[in-house]
Amino acid sequence: MTGDSGARAAGKSSEHLVVDGQSVAFEHGQTIAAALLAADRTSWRTTRTGRPRGIFCGIGVCFDCLVTTNGRRVRACLEPARPGDVVTTGPVSTDVTESPRESLRESPREVPHEPAVRTGPALPTRCDAVVVGAGPAGLTAANAMAEHGLSVVLLDVGERPGGQYYRHCVGGGSGAAASPRFRTLRAELDRHVVAGRVDYRPRHQVWTLERTTPPIPAPAAAPPADPVWTVHAVAEGPEPSPVQVLAPAVVVATGGYDRQLPFPGWDLPGVVAAGGAQALLKGSGVALGGPGGPGGRVVVAGSGPFLLPVATGLAQAGAEVAGVYEASRARDYLRHARTLARQPGRFGEAAGYARDLARHRVPYRTGHAVVAAHGDERLTGVTVARLDGQRRPIPGSERRVECGTLAVGYGFTPQLDLLVEVGCDVSTGTGGSTAVLVDADQATTCAGLYSAGETTGVGGAALALAEGELAGLAVVAATGRPVEEQRKAGLTRRKDSLRAFADVLDAVHPLPVGWLDDLPDETVLCRCEEVPVGAVREAVRDLGAGDPRSAKLLTRTGMGWCQGRTCAAATAALVGRLTGSPPDGTDAAALARRPVAQPVPLGVLASLADLPPTHVMDSDEPSGGTAR
Ligand SMILES: Cc1cc2nc3c(=O)[nH]c(=O)nc-3n(C[C@H](O)[C@H](O)[C@H](O)COP(=O)(O)OP(=O)(O)OC[C@H]3O[C@@H](n4cnc5c(N)ncnc54)[C@H](O)[C@@H]3O)c2cc1C
Ligand code: FES
């Protein structure tokens, strides 16, 4: 790495952090991962077997990008870079005796920082509703409830509202976060915050929900509630602190993350999730393979329409995109022509992407997949193969494509931890995706718990917006307040139409599980625990594992830092192929169970008993929440 490098693309970096003793420039608003990548560092830690690791998911799900910053171990893709940060790269132990919860709090920070969450009046410990997630779904839910006079606490891991879709680009820009729709949502939120109806807290990670007996009286607007939910969160900052909020209703809108399948070499630095590449581009202005981004030529691969904005975004940012390889075939859409015809806007969108790809001379191949990644310390090329009707590679069709970056993803999978842990029912869609079950009002099978957006089935931002608003209105109705029936009916029609379209996408872009049959035994299945595919085969064939959970217990797949978020879908699919019974909702729920959904420092757990006295938020009382 060269000294005083980084943020080369824009050439307007003005701030510096220190990486292994060298000064690295970054732009205000970039993450530590973005600063490292812009300084041409594609890997910055090694696993316990010595394999190099850098960024993969890009949104805090996989833990590959762990790095020590100011003495604390942090996820580089989430942690904002700040002037004077002292970053140390190198081995990070994944010893099972050291949980992320312990390691994230291993020593005090060396450099004092401006607190990430502005301090103000204490968060209320009681309100009418808590919303977890400030993406499209969470924002419309919170706004709808506040509009009807409910007191709402809105908690999100991120620095700013908007979630994955309305991502704020470094230096502003013209992305989705600058769109009129988001500006309206944001203005509404700010109005409710100022009026004291919404207490919005960024950088608050919700780690569990708990059914609780109400210890204090409910605010005026709340219904006689049973159960009452306690939402447990960690307020991030130099000194993470515990937060508990009680509410009769909780809307969980935690979104999703990229769904992956293993192939030889998929853990090499340079292989990133498609969503991760997009997050880096939209959020930090780093185009992998583009000017100022590391990685040489780019290949985009996987399945689903999301590959198109990723490829065109990178190409427009100056990357040389060697090709887009889509596992499904265009003719798979023909079986759903009637549903597709009801969404003419989508054809226009697809045509726009096709034009962009043509303009940048990016080949788009359907029925193809990347089946291997090559390189020693970092990616140097991939093998692409044609797939047969069972989506297995056709022998003899393989060819090598030289590239330094592979952006890969097979659609998204919902983030269900909080919901599954408290017993909400889940279902499995036609394409193998899992989602929490909700009724027409977005109510889950647990009383008082609602869900909206990707958690109810991956369907895109427009569907998330509609579902969030419906969930908000349902909570309002549950308080006995009147709800505009026409508004609700319109939202329901929109939701149904968008959901039908999403179901088609799910069916047309399933996980191409056929190729799991041909994977070499030594292919890494679980990146965190470095469990090979062969170990799971052995567990099923020789040790009697008849379901994914047994395979997990026998091999440790899914027991690493990410708690199976990255490998669970593939593990379930592999076990399904071997046993002949594809994973169902029960398997999915078993693999999505995570008692602690986000890292919690042990000190925070220990201090739970010392939380301040209770404080009730209602519509007449200003909350002092943060407007950012
Ligand atoms: C990495 C990535 C990039 C994407 N890029 C695009 C794109 O460019 N174009 C496009 O059309 N679609 C994109 N999508 C899909 C799109 O973002 C979704 O369709 C849409 O954002 C769904 O809205 P949502 O509100 O359900 O979830 P999200 O927008 O994902 O919002 C969920 C929010 O919940 C928060 N959260 C999650 N867990 C917790 C927790 N435990 N505690 C507190 N907060 C939590 C997250 O920080 C996030 O802000 C992307 C998805 C991902 C995963
Ligand atoms: S990939 Fe993280 S636990 Fe398996």
Report the principal-axis shape.
Answer: globular
Mean pLDDT: 85
Distance between the termini: 35 Å
Largest sheet: 5 strands, mixed
The CATH superfamily of the largest domain bears the name FAD/NAD(P)-binding domain
- CATH architectural arrangement of the largest domain: 3-Layer(bba) Sandwich
Enumerate the spans where pLDDT stays under 50 for 5 or more consecutive residues: 1-11, 93-120, 619-628
Number of helical elements? 16
Bound compounds, each kind once, are: flavin-adenine dinucleotide, FE2/S2 (inorganic) cluster
Number of strands: 29
CATH topology value of the largest domain: FAD/NAD(P)-binding domain
Question: Which structural class matches the secondary elements?
Answer: alpha/beta
Percent helix among the residues?
Answer: 25-40%
Question: According to CATH, what is the class of the largest domain?
Answer: Alpha Beta
- Beta content comes to 15-25%
Question: Which strand order does the major sheet show?
Answer: 2-1-7-5-6
**Radius of gyration in whole Å, from Cα?**
23 Å
The total domain count is: 4
